[in-house]
From TrEMBL:
GO terms for molecular function: fatty acyl-CoA hydrolase activity. Belongs to the 4-hydroxybenzoyl-CoA thioesterase family. This is Thioesterase family protein. Keywords: Hydrolase. The keyword Hydrolase applies. Coiled coil: none annotated. Residues 1-32 are annotated as: Disordered. The keyword Protein biosynthesis does not apply. PANTHER family: 4-HYDROXYBENZOYL-COA THIOESTERASE FAMILY MEMBER, NOVEL THIOESTERASE SUPERFAMILY DOMAIN AND SAPOSIN A-TYPE DOMAIN CONTAINING PROTEIN (0610012H03RIK). CDD domains: 4HBT (cd00586). SUPFAM superfamilies: Thioesterase/thiol ester dehydrase-isomerase.
Length: 175
């Protein structure tokens, strides 16, 4: 069995030599820059939990995605734009991404900033910044895309007007 290892010029391999990772030639060398608080339109305080930390003493990378999900759904539910129990339209996450700039830890207060980068006919691209309490720059930032579908058929549908109206104040100006 071949050992998995990362090499810049060789892909990782399994015991059967199937490629599981290969560096992409089109990967940008541009380093992401954290956005300031002023880039976001809505904030939700989140307190880290003991279970959020990993063995390295910081919030595990996958937990950041739960914070993303929390700020988006809290916003939609509080504005009556999402009925998780009976709504005919639901949002399915089809894309997600996160860049990490500084560690978050337990115990710590985090402020999740939210904005909408794109409001499409049946999809929304949310952008989220996670800030350590009182910090000016994001410790992490990323996005996820919801495609809105009929709950029963799971087929895309146009954004309901109440949802579109609730999201309008979050739309970020075009760059």
């Amino acid at each position: 069995m071949r050992r998995l290892r990362r090499a810049t010029d060789r892909p990782l391999s399994t015991p059967h030599s199937a490629t599981v990772f290969s560096p992409r030639a089109d990967m940008s060398s541009t380093k992401p820059v954290p956005l300031p608080r002023s880039a976001y339109r809505h904030f939700l305080p989140i307190t880290t939990r003991w279970m959020d930390n990993d063995v390295y003493g910081h919030v595990n990378n996958v937990v950041y995605y739960s914070y993303f999900d929390t700020v988006v759904n809290e916003y939609l539910i509080r504005r009556g734009a999402l009925d998780v129990e009976r709504g005919a339209t639901i949002g399915l996450v089809v894309e997600t991404q996160c860049n990490y700039f500084a560690p978050l830890v337990f115990p710590q207060r985090v402020e999740a900033g939210l904005r909408v980068a794109r409001l499409g006919s049946s999809s929304v691209r949310y952008e989220i910044g996670l800030f350590a309490h009182g910090e000016a720059s994001a410790a992490a930032q990323g996005h996820f895309v919801h495609v809105y579908v009929d709950r029963a058929t799971r087929r895309p549908v146009p954004l309901p007007e109440p949802l579109r109206a609730a999201l309008a104040p979050l739309v970020a100006p075009a760059a």
